[in-house]
Design brief:
alpha+beta, Phosphorylase Kinase, domain 1, three-stranded antiparallel sheet, 18 strands, 15% strand, disordered N terminus
Length: 497
């Protein structure tokens, strides 16, 4: 969809509405990008009733489209009268619409039974927000609760912001900008939904069960039932090859746009796996199925072993020599990836598989990108919070991620893997995102001279960790190849590994 803005007269505003009406009727654009229309009408102009009627007709033509396109902010705002025109129920509400708190969201106070799991700092003036659909509980502060309470009765964004302005006796732009950004965030998360939204929830069960067939593959086990993805262990009917099927489950993704976006990510992952073919540390991809009438899936190599965290937690002791072997194998794996100009973008222990002989395999390239051909593609979302580098995050729950991954961010996350192997922990803690993000950005990392395994940690290894985890990206190693080179020179050359 096009971003339409800076319309300065009634004629152009009418053209905007006409374009909206036409685009609404086109099926393939109905599930395209979110449309945000911002129309500024010069202070001397009068809004033609025809403009409003045309947009109303567009809505009538496709009533379900309103909630998907999020036409939230057609601000027919007179410069001299900030709220007079925009609060007019005829002109404003027909564009913006009213929103309500989702019926699948409940907000309660913190009961005493929860105190043992919540630090004292977060027990007063905090609330539990429970998402029934995703079965997740979030801790919110009094300010967020105050804002959400404004939508227990359906209201427009403008009405709520005006009410807050009145209650605070302020009309500052900072308040408006903050509220507007938070409103959009709540809508994206489906915490706030359009008043007319029926909130149909798809049944979120795996599509297949043991004994079913997908194409040429017999399902032998459901390995994982995630939020939007099913993971199956399968066997080829002819060759008996054991594989893993990663399937996008349409029944778990009600919004067609979200499904399309995830499908594109799945296709990109398959493409990058094909590009990485020949790197023994990367899981192989055998097949991509994108039938429009079915659930998209890719067939991947079945890898035995454990995630890195589970592997370390199951160990009673990790000798220094074994630790170096594991580190070297991780560095060799990512060096091979970086040599092909591939950025993983989501490195954390669950994406590293290993076994007793310390063989390392990298899985899940869903957030990966090609450093050369995708320089302008911004992939800000995604990642395990504790493993996010400081330059990619904000100290805000509304907009957590601010920068696309690159080689430097991969180096930082590799450094955290090495730190985990040495100390069996991450260097930063935080009960809520703001606390964790601030620690990641500002806290000085501690590098004990004795490892978790009660072994001395060499100065050279600490120096490698420090350089990899430097808060300034340009002060880190350029890529995994550089870490590996230094590791061989300063660690392996001085040991018998």
């Amino acid at each position: 969809m096009k971003l339409l803005q800076d319309v300065v007269d009634t004629a152009e505003a009418a053209a905007v509405a006409e374009t909206m009406a036409a685009e609404t009727m086109v099926a393939e654009t109905m599930v395209a990008e979110t449309m945000v229309v911002e129309t500024m009408v010069a202070e001397t102009m009068v809004v033609d009733k025809t403009v409003v009627e045309m947009v109303m007709a567009a809505r009538t033509a496709a009533p379900d489209l309103h909630q998907n396109l999020a036409i939230k902010r057609l601000a027919l705002t007179n410069h001299k009268k900030d709220w007079e025109l925009s609060s007019n129920p005829f002109y404003y509400n027909c564009f913006m619409g009213k929103y309500k708190l989702s019926k699948y969201i409940t907000i309660t106070g913190i009961d005493e039974a929860s105190y043992d799991n919540i630090p004292g700092t977060y027990q007063k003036d905090y609330f539990h927000l429970y998402d029934v659909i995703y079965k997740k509980c979030f801790l919110i502060n009094g300010t967020i609760n105050y804002f959400l309470n404004k939508f227990h009765t359906p209201a427009t964004e403008a009405d709520v912001i005006k009410e807050i302005h009145d209650e605070l006796n302020s009309n500052g732009k900072e308040i408006e900008d903050t509220c507007s950004a938070f409103f959009k965030y709540l809508c994206r998360r489906n915490i706030l939904v359009p008043e007319e939204n029926e909130e149909i929830v798809f049944e979120g069960k795996p599509v297949y069960k043991e004994g079913d067939v997908i194409g040429n593959w017999n399902i032998v086990e459901v390995l994982s039932d995630k939020r939007s993805v099913d993971i199956y262990k399968a066997v080829d009917k002819k060759t008996h090859l054991v594989s893993v099927i990663k399937l996008l489950n349409r029944n778990k993704i009600a919004d067609p746009r979200k499904y399309k976006k995830k499908e594109e990510r799945l296709e990109r992952e398959y493409s990058l796996l094909q590009k990485a073919n020949g790197i023994t540390a990367i899981s192989k991809a055998y097949e991509l199925n994108k039938d429009e009438n079915q659930n998209a899936y890719i067939v991947l190599e079945f890898i035995k072993g454990k995630g890195l965290s589970d592997f370390l937690n199951d160990l009673e002791y990790l000798p220094g020599q074994d630790m170096y072997v594991l580190m070297q194998n991780i560095l060799v794996a990512f060096a091979s990836l970086h040599q092909k100009n591939l950025i993983h973008g989501d490195i954390h222990p669950h994406n590293i598989m290993t076994d007793d002989d310390k063989t390392v395999r990298i899985i899940d390239l869903g957030f990966s990108r090609n450093a050369e051909t995708e320089k302008n593609e911004i992939l800000k979302s995604g990642g395990v919070n504790y493993y996010m580098p400081p330059e990619r995050i904000n100290i805000s729950s509304v907009k957590k991620y601010s920068k696309e991954p690159d080689m430097y961010s991969d180096v930082y996350q590799i450094g955290l893997l090495l730190y985990l192997i040495v100390y069996n922990s991450v260097p930063f803690k935080g009960f809520i995102w703001e606390e964790l993000a601030q620690n990641i950005k500002e806290q000085i990392i501690n590098y004990p001279e004795i490892s978790f395994w009660n072994e001395p940690v060499s100065t050279n290894l600490i120096n490698i960790l420090k350089k990899s985890l430097n808060k300034e990206p340009s002060e880190r190693y350029a890529d995994a190849c550089s870490i590996l080179k230094d590791f061989k020179k300063s660690i392996l050359a001085k040991t018998s590994v």
